[in-house]
Amino acid sequence: MITAYVRLEVRRALRDAAYVVFGIGMPVLMYLLFTNLGTVDAEWRTASMVAMAAYGALGTALGTGTGVAEDKGVGWLRQLRVTPMSPRQVVAGRALTGSVVVLPAVLAVLAAGALVNGVRLDAWQWAAVTLVLWVGAFPFTLLGIGNGYRLSAQSTGLVNVGCGLALSVVGGLWFPVELFPHWLRSLSGLTPGRRYAEVGQSLATGAAPGLAAVAVLAVWALLFTAYAVFSYRRSGETV
To answer: What is the pLDDT tens value at each position of the chain, 239 positions in all?
Structure first.
């Protein structure tokens, strides 16, 4: 049943024109803009490629929650509650849907890096960066889903956009963290957005991801999972 549910939700997501324009096109446009203004070295083009792919994946993952809120408004969640699926299965199904639609956003930015900006990595590095950014977006999908279950459709869209901007800017996905003041750089290291991109950037340079980055991501993943399940259960009191 959960497999059929995921297939249904993926088809619905991929038919959305806004997903193609903003989820895939916008990160590519921003990446090409940021890396072709003035003189930019190859190292920054590679680091920015990974960061912008992370930004695209993060935004697309959070956007999954807007669909959840819309479904809540039209009564789809009430239908799901009468199926044999448990709350964890429903949340997992939505999260898996978000993970599937994240992949095109990642691939589009990486393709722009290779084909337009001339980024060169070994085959294993391309594969590793793609896999890490794809799987690593899962916690952000759960955050968006949690917001969708807790808030109205309009509020969810605004909150998820705000979360995406905050995590991206503070996480250094738009600008190098080296430009941040010391206090903001320290705060950035505690955010999932920073560590998410850092893991991919490490692999792009041929280095192993740091344990601190993995640990921070793991803690946030647990928190977002608990939040999504809690929000789904609480939504049953009002839906």
So the answer is: 556 666 666 666 666 666 667 778 899 999 999 898 776 788 889 999 999 999 999 998 888 887 777 766 666 566 666 566 666 676 677 777 777 788 889 999 999 999 999 999 999 999 999 999 999 998 898 899 889 888 887 888 899 999 999 999 999 999 888 889 999 999 999 999 999 999 999 999 999 999 999 999 999 999 998 998 888 787 765 54
- Assigned domain for 85 exists: yes
Let me know if residue 239 belongs to a domain. Answer: no
Q: Which of 102, 104, 106, 105 is nearest to 94 (CA)?
A: 102
Domain count, the chain: 1
User: Is 10 a domain residue?
Assistant: yes
Q: Does residue 91 belong to any structural domain of this protein?
A: yes
Contact 147, 167 (CB under 8 A): no
pTM of the model: 0.85
Q: Which domain holds residue 51?
A: 2-234
With beta carbons less than 8 A apart as the criterion, state whether 99 and 137 touch. Answer: yes
